[in-house]
Amino acid sequence: MRTAARACTHMRENGRVTSATRQPETPAAALPTRLIATDLDGTLLRDDKSVSPRTVAALAAAEEAGIEVFFVTGRPARWMDVVSDHVHGHGLAICGNGAAVVDLHGGPGAHRFVKVRELARDNALDAVGLLRDVAPGTVYAVEQTYGFYQEPDYPKLHMEIPDTLAPAEDLLAPDAPGAGEPVLKILAFHPEIDPDAFLTLARLAIGDRANVTRSSPSALLEISGPGVSKASTLALCCAERGISHEQVVAFGDMPNDVEMLTWAGRSYAMGNAHPDVLAAASGQTVANNEDGVAVVIERLLMERDR
Question: Do residues 186 and 170 lie in contact, with contact meaning Cβ atoms separated by under 8 Å?
Answer without folding.
Answer: no
